[in-house]
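Reviewer 2 asked us to include a model.

Predict the structure of this chain.
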Amino acid sequence: MSTDVTVPTLGESITEATLGEWLKQPGDAVAADEPIASLETDKVAVEVPSPVAGILEDHVVAVGDTIEVGAVIARIGEGGSEKKDQQSETKDESKEKASAADADMGDDSEDRQASAAADSQPLTLSPAVRRAVLEHGLDPSKIKGTGKDGRLTKDDVLQAAKVEKAEPHAPSMAPDEPAVAKSEAAKGNRNEERVRMTRLRQTIANRLKEAQNTAALLTTFNDVDMSAVMDARSQYKDLFEKKHGIRLGFMGFFVKAACLALRDVPSVNGRIDGDEIVYHDYVDVSVAVSAPNGLVVPVIRNAESMSFAEIETTIADLGQRAKDGKLGLDEMKGGTFTISNGGVFGSLLSTPIINPPQSAVLGMHRIEQRPVVLDTGEIAARPMMYLALSYDHRLVDGREAVTALVRMKEALEDPMRLLIDL
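Predicted model (structure tokens):
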């Protein structure tokens, strides 16, 4: 008797997903609650566990297929533990026979057997590992896995990528080779690769285009002298980390400054719902994080009531789990205002696009020394950052957008304002 494996409930308003990867192949023994497949939804990758222990009989759907919640994707047969033991015994007997037959054949025979055995086993890659392999263009079958049961880990792929980059280039062509061949080689390869867009990337593309088509987007700019924030971090970072167990970063200051500004200019923290405007007396900050499959925006709930330590701890946790592909759907729902830090990639200036139905997004950029005229009339080098506030002009007037950005600038250039709520 077989047990059907169905697509689990994926979250509110999510009715379908794409099969991203099979983690188990037909004939594999599986334990109860062991992941057998990875699904890609509009926001995250979700693993599908086996409801029972047994043997995976067959795949009902293929990788890349779109499937609805509740649909059958695989079947699990009975006798998993018994068959697994039999398989184990058969393998042990085969190994003993092979060892006895090849005892006199030397190390070369052993190496060939190990290589053949490794090649015959299907590779099972987690979503994070699969993305890393695709990013670096590596052959996973040529990478030695250090994970459980010899499975590849993300660190294995990254290490292999480093080794490949460090290898010397192939020797140049011999002098007596035809000139035509040398000329063709000089042109370089013109290979193309077609890769199906992930469901997450499709959703990102659709939402960004929807924002441009629906909202009246406008961006206002300002620059901020980061001297005070950098001095504060330098003075208190060791004590902060010793007490709270987390580093004091820039994002804590920006989240605090944004909360202060949004309280004074509530429309920037609001949204349009039909012919009504919804104002929020709380600030749920969506923090744009770069993940292997694209940009995701986990949410810091009630940021206005959080301490610096709570903000930094939450951001670190969300960022790490985004990179590992372990964010839950509920952690990316909602959000009333977004902060995007392009400065970590070296961006000098940008015009960020709002995250619907939010009405505004703050863009941070890189810090660089620039000449500034001081109040005394002197010119001095200061660590400056450009800030960009993109907003929906249907809801937010220019005066309100500029006022909100100036409030943030004032709080960052004089962090004491954050403490005395000014």
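DSSP finds eleven helices and 19 strands in the chain. The radius of gyration is 28 Å. We have added this to the supplementary material.
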